[in-house]
Each structure stands twice: as structure tokens, then as C-alpha cells.
UniProtKB/TrEMBL annotation:
Cellular compartment(s): Secreted
Keywords on record: Cytokine, Secreted
Name of the gene this protein is made from: CTF1
InterPro entries hit by this protein: 4_helix_cytokine-like_core, PRF/CT
Gene3D superfamilies (alphabetical): 1.20.1250.10
Protein name: Cardiotrophin-1 isoform X8
UniProt similarity note: Belongs to the IL-6 superfamily.
Length: 203
């Protein structure tokens, strides 16, 4: 009888361990993606600045930080929130960023049509932000956390920034710089938040 009970307990143990291993693998994979995209976002920002001309990139130049419809920088208290809430905010920002990056790419195609690598980086970044956002949503689902709640409408945010980007060359360049900077901030923030969950990360 004890042998039969043991044979019933093993599958139960396996069934409890398997989802945990699957969750850890998903978190680790998403964290690695966020870390890689943080490096790409840094490269995008550097590439963007290089193609804007003076005064961008000059020592001491402090560009304006115009508001971006539907998107703001991570709040100062972001790191103090529970991890699932932080990931929800990360996912919401990553959902808004792709159409904003697309608007920046289209404007840069007009201003810097020969900057093929910059335009490609902008296109890749929009695609990568979608992929990371979907991966974060999957982690939230695996954690059993709600992913819903009010979110900015990406199309509306893109329409607003597109209108703002037509206000002149310098404002368009500044706005594009702001979007690229926000992209880096949110991808980096996502990497840090996932690091709280990754095996071997901070408790």
C-alpha cells in the first residue's frame, strides 16, 4: 500500500515543480531580452544624437524635455511598488512606445533620409518594444497577476506626437530625442524590475 501511495505522490510533486521551473525560465528569458534591449536602446540614443547636428551632442547642451502624450518617465516611487505593479506599468509603457518610435522614424526619414542605420534602429526598436511588452505580459500571466486596468491609447498617443512633430525642425528633433530617452528609461526599468524576480536576483 505504501508503494502505491508513493507512486501517486511523485506525479503530484512533479506537477508542482514543473510550473515553477517554467515560470523561472520565462522570467529569466524575459530578463535577458530586457538586458539586451537596454544595450540596443543606448545605441539608438547615441545614434539619434549623432544625426541631429548642433547643438545636440555638444558639451553642456541640455535639451528641453517636452511632455509626450500618453507616456511619462518612471515615477520616482516606481522602485518601491510591488513587483507585479511595476511590471504592469512597464507593460503599459512598452505598449505605447512602438507607435511613438514609428512617428519618430517617419520624421527622421524626412530630416535625415540618408541615415539608414538610424532609421533601421528606430524600426527595430519599435518591433523589439512590442516583443518585450508581450513577454512581460506573459510573465504577469504566469504570476497570476492582473494585466488589465486603464492604459493610454497607443494610437491616440501616436497621433498627438505626430501633430507635435510637425511644429518645426528643432521641436521635432527634441521630441524624437525625448521618445528615444523614454524608451531607454522604460526598457532599463523593465530589466531592473525583472531582475527582482530572476533566479539569483535581489530578494
Amino acid at each position: 500500500m505504501s508503494r502505491r501511495e508513493g507512486s501517486l505522490e511523485d506525479p503530484q510533486a512533479d506537477s508542482s515543480v514543473s510550473p515553477l521551473l517554467h515560470l523561472e525560465a520565462k522570467i529569466q528569458q524575459t530578463h535577458s531580452l530586457a538586458r539586451l534591449l537596454t544595450k540596443y536602446a543606448e545605441q539608438l540614443l547615441q545614434e539619434y544624437v549623432q544625426h541631429q547636428g548642433d547643438p545636440f551632442g555638444l558639451p553642456g547642451f541640455s535639451p528641453p524635455r517636452p511632455p509626450v502624450a500618453g507616456l511619462s518617465a518612471p515615477a520616482p516611487g516606481h522602485a518601491g511598488l510591488p513587483v507585479p505593479e511595476r511590471l504592469r506599468l512597464d507593460a503599459a509603457a512598452l505598449a505605447v512606445l512602438p507607435p511613438l518610435l514609428d512617428v519618430v522614424r517617419r520624421r527622421q526619414a524626412e530630416l535625415n533620409p540618408r541615415a539608414a542605420r538610424l532609421l533601421r534602429r528606430l524600426e527595430d526598436s519599435a518591433r523589439q518594444a512590442r516583443a518585450l511588452g508581450a513577454a512581460v505580459e506573459a510573465v504577469l500571466g504566469a504570476l497570476g497577476a492582473e494585466t488589465g486596468g486603464p492604459r493610454p491609447e497607443p494610437a491616440a498617443a501616436a497621433a498627438a506626437i505626430a501633430a507635435a512633430a510637425t511644429g518645426g525642425v528643432f521641436p521635432a528633433k527634441v521630441l524624437g530625442l525625448r521618445v528615444c530617452s523614454l524608451y531607454l528609461e522604460w526598457v532599463s526599468r523593465t530589466e531592473a524590475d525583472l531582475g527582482q524576480l530572476a533566479p539569483g536576483g535581489p530578494a
